[in-house]
Amino acid sequence: MRDLLREVLEANLRIPKEGLATLTWGNVSGVDRGAGVYVIKPSGVPYARLTEEDLVTVEIETGRVVGSRLKPSVDSETHRLLYQAFPEIGGITHTHSTHAVAFAQAHRDIPVLGTTHADNFNGPIPVTRDLTPAECESEYERNTGLVILDVLDGDAASVPAALVASHGPFTWGANATKSLETAVVCEEVARMAIHTLALNPAAEPPEHLIRRHYTRKHGPDSYYGNV
Amino acid sequence: MRDLLREVLEANLRIPKEGLATLTWGNVSGVDRGAGVYVIKPSGVPYARLTEEDLVTVEIETGRVVGSRLKPSVDSETHRLLYQAFPEIGGITHTHSTHAVAFAQAHRDIPVLGTTHADNFNGPIPVTRDLTPAECESEYERNTGLVILDVLDGDAASVPAALVASHGPFTWGANATKSLETAVVCEEVARMAIHTLALNPAAEPPEHLIRRHYTRKHGPDSYYGNV
Amino acid sequence: MRDLLREVLEANLRIPKEGLATLTWGNVSGVDRGAGVYVIKPSGVPYARLTEEDLVTVEIETGRVVGSRLKPSVDSETHRLLYQAFPEIGGITHTHSTHAVAFAQAHRDIPVLGTTHADNFNGPIPVTRDLTPAECESEYERNTGLVILDVLDGDAASVPAALVASHGPFTWGANATKSLETAVVCEEVARMAIHTLALNPAAEPPEHLIRRHYTRKHGPDSYYGNV
Amino acid sequence: MRDLLREVLEANLRIPKEGLATLTWGNVSGVDRGAGVYVIKPSGVPYARLTEEDLVTVEIETGRVVGSRLKPSVDSETHRLLYQAFPEIGGITHTHSTHAVAFAQAHRDIPVLGTTHADNFNGPIPVTRDLTPAECESEYERNTGLVILDVLDGDAASVPAALVASHGPFTWGANATKSLETAVVCEEVARMAIHTLALNPAAEPPEHLIRRHYTRKHGPDSYYGNV
């Protein structure tokens, strides 16, 4: 639990450090499946004075805050739904990073335009449908999670990221650190995509190249990295 | 008064630190309503050697400089008019931040394109009308304040920011720090908007989502933050 | 002379610090009219190890290097011609800053789009004509100065900057520091202009506003700054 | 060999420092022709904890790893093919820098638009053809080198850079440091080109100016720099 708190703190502090959001925006959480809880950034606390003690522990099943003096991020219920839906997820990051938000606001998927994308995501980063008035009225944050589930269609592994329409990116991974790094990549592929589409609106990579790059880093035939 | 000086100094120093303007550009002021004065950056002093002693104290009612050896920012009369018109304002920031200036120069409001905007502003950030030749001729800085009043139409609370046409953003808030942070957000939503409009010139968020995000952080039903 | 060397060194070191050019690109010079010389950056020396001893002193009249062990910047003859043509100039900066170069490469003046520009330049920053094959063949750097003179038409004061076509900006001022700061402003107004033109290709400020801003900071009716 | 390890380490560390790639992306190698080997970044090691001991030594002729405990970069075989094809190359850099990748993804050469480009490259930076399904299926990294060779047509000296289609830039030079610096320039001319083409899609510099700038810094008539 000590380790989880430290990791979640450090991942949160990387949000401003990596240029992913300004002021208090964004949040990272990490899970302890054994204890049935996740640890998340408190609501509205500036990064400059965020400590391990400020982090909020929440029960995955009930949403009950466990022994914390602060309220969790307003987006906590979105995290909780994703943890419930996908037992393999160990960390979640939400940012308002500039270029990923631009795609979310434009209601456009981030398309696969090259190997940088394919090294990390097995397909476009999808944008969700808009929430309905009723979904915004009540249990808004939980419903935000539900439109993410909709667009994932049961598969959180191939593309560990989604753009909530008119809002911004959620990313996830095996732990808090991985989810943060996926947020970094999501922003960078969005930035590359904006410039690429300006140079060539019809840009498209060959499917076999994309396949090669994804499998080079993921799955049984992967040969990237040093363990 | 000590505290006000320190806060106004620190808010001014955040202008270059947050990347909102180069060289000596920009200025922040903060008010002491009890004493009937505001404190503002002096004209043309580089941020690198700005001290509390350099700050200029000005009477809200008369515009008279009180016991300062330097001239206030040339924009001081614009600040003063806003303080006179809106008793609830405690701080004002003016910058020449790149992307907000681009909207001001393009004579376009910064439209509401998503939740980042709606978390902070209850509507588009409006651009003023152009000043007339007569308004530029005499009492130019006071007239700059008047066109801001025009576009606000009595409501400084819903959208605490305006773009002066062909010039740049003014933002305000409960104090100097808040006005500076609103300037940071104004620049960021402008940057996001430019990329969004490039990806989708017809981008528009659902009204009920925007409403939900604004009320989540503002007003009686707000549930954001930790007091 | 000691002071001049220090100022020219510091102005050169601000080129990378202000993000105006990468690697060894760019150069600043400053003049000692009494001694009839200017001091300029040597050719091809990285900023990280540039010292006062590396700076090269050149006679304005003859172009002869005086007591320096290094060759001056390849652009030295362009500086020299400008010093000869305009006795009031005390410093010159040449950079390859990204957005100003984009205008130079696009063969477009940087237009006056708002007060940030008008605070510093009394009109568009002009792009020169292309050099002819003969002008490129022999005395190329001196001819680069001559096309700048062409576009200035005898007036180096109103707009202390020009873009050499397909090349980049030269800026100047009362001394090396001022010329460098004008290079900073030139890059920033270019950046603002690119975003403005993307939002509104027909953007144009009212002439009387532009006039007011320029005269607010320049000439007999100026009331900006603290002496 | 000590010196080579230090140089290759430092060149690799400049990838994130110069903003050329995020996380573990990118790699630099340097060659020892006498020993018949090159030294390259290991696969997937974060820059923050990269040491000389982590670098991997590979035989140019056989591709065999010599006395290293880590696997080389997955792109190692691309480096090896280039070292085999061009004996004059002493260092190679591969990055996923944003703007160069945008051109690679758009399947567009980076055109010569001005002197910044011509100071460094004697022509457009070419984009390769797409790899075929068979070329992606087997010996993919070696085939990536082969499409670079195709586009170079035997001349690695005039333009020491190429963009692999839908992927990103490879650059090279006399040593690891030079190849890294060429990667910096490649990214910067790509950035300038994107802005230039937005301002003027038909922008083109005069051929004689381009010729003058290239020969000013390269070949027998060069007069740039201090030895």
The global form of chain A is globular
How many helices of chain A?
8
Largest sheet of chain A: 6 strands, antiparallel
Q: Radius of gyration of chain A, Cα only, in angstroms?
A: 17 Å
CATH topology heading of chain A: L-fuculose-1-phosphate Aldolase
Distance between the termini of chain A: 25 Å
User: How many distinct domains of chain A?
Assistant: 1
Which bin fits the share of residues in helices of chain A? 40-55%
Taking pLDDT < 50 over at least 5 consecutive residues as the criterion, the unreliable ranges of chain A are: none
At the first level of CATH, what is the class of chain A?
Answer: Alpha Beta
What class do helices, strands and sheet pairing of chain A give? Answer: alpha+beta
CATH-level-2 architecture of chain A: 3-Layer(aba) Sandwich
Domain Class II aldolase/adducin N-terminal (chains A, B, C, D): 6-194
EC number (chains A, B, C, D): 5.1.3.4
Family (chains A, B, C, D): Belongs to the aldolase class II family. AraD/FucA subfamily.
Keywords (chains A, B, C, D): Carbohydrate metabolism, Isomerase, Metal-binding, Zinc
